[in-house]
């Protein structure tokens, strides 16, 4: 693990992605302290008129929406949904995919056939349409979006982890562990799992990016929680208000934020890929 951290710290691409990611985590944690207004509160002039579609100013850093709401406050509060969906989805995907890959690759036989058969079935399901249908059936809500993402994306990591385990389980150190009387569980999680951690971390990073994109897409299509402020919901509201070209300060911030957060995931994923594959580090 220490070697993994050391290699990651030397990777400028990964460090850049981590800095971006940590920035958004801090914004999400301290969102209530950073946001100057309630994101759903309508702002009024002293004469009682709504502050509708105001450009950025010292009072409203990113302007206001068609309904007179502060865009900066919505962006800050909306970061919590993006970070929450990204982090929880990535952790769940990595946990499920890694464990299924470990078990299938190590035990082989019928266990492998059953688990990989399930993976094959999951590969037959289109990602975004499946997520949209599931959210439509279960209803809007962050937990349902996370469930939809996790149910479909664990398939990718499980197959790759399985392939790695197949190449590891016949190595000398594994045979030595078996001869010493180590249990299957100990061999899996003490001897094999540490060798596949870099690969798992690749999927943690890329799954986070995919989850954020999926949540934003679902919200943009109007299937997100109508009372939950999110970046995708901001885009949907701007589009439905036909203000995409009239108020660029409304639509650009969420688009840029989504791009940066997704980019951070792929940058970290690239770094872990280089760590897992020494040939990439030599380029």
From TrEMBL:
Residues 79-269 form the ABC transmembrane type-1 domain. It comes from the Bacteria. SUPFAM superfamilies: MetI-like (SSF161098). It is a multi-pass membrane protein. It is found in: Cell membrane. Keywords: Cell membrane, Membrane, Transmembrane, Transmembrane helix, Transport. GO terms for biological process: transmembrane transport. Pfam families: BPD_transp_1, OppC_N. GO terms for cellular component: plasma membrane. The chain crosses the membrane at residues 15-35, 81-107, 127-154, 192-213, 249-269. Belongs to the binding-protein-dependent transport system permease family. This is Peptide/nickel transport system permease protein. It comes from Dethiosulfatibacter aminovorans DSM 17477.
């Amino acid at each position: 693990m220490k070697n993994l951290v050391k290699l990651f710290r030397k990777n400028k691409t990964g460090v850049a992605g981590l800095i971006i990611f940590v920035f958004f985590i801090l914004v999400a944690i301290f969102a209530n302290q950073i946001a100057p207004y309630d994101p759903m509160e309508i702002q009024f002039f002293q004469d009682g008129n709504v502050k509708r579609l105001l450009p950025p100013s010292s009072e409203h850093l990113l302007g206001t929406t068609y309904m007179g709401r502060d865009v900066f406050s919505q962006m800050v509060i909306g970061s919590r949904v993006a970070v929450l969906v990204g982090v929880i989805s990535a952790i769940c995907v990595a946990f499920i995919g890694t464990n299924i890959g470990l078990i299938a690759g190590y035990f082989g036989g019928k266990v492998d056939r059953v688990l990989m058969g399930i993976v094959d079935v999951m590969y037959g399901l289109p990602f975004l349409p499946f997520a949209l249908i599931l959210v439509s059936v279960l209803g809007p809500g962050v937990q349902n979006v996370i469930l939809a993402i996790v149910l479909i994306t664990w398939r990718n990591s499980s197959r790759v982890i399985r392939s790695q385990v197949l190449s590891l389980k016949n190595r000398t150190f594994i045979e030595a562990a078996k001869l010493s009387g180590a249990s299957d569980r100990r061999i899996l999680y003490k001897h094999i799992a540490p060798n596949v951690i870099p690969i798992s971390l690749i999927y943690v990073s890329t799954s986070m990016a995919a989850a954020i994109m999926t949540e934003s897409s679902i919200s943009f299509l109007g299937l997100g929680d109508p009372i939950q402020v999110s970046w995708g919901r901001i885009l949907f509201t701007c589009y439905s208000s036909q203000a995409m070209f009239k108020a660029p300060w409304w639509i650009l911030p969420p688009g840029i934020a989504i791009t940066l957060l997704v980019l951070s995931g792929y940058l970290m994923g690239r770094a872990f890929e280089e760590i897992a594959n020494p040939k990439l580090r030599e380029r």
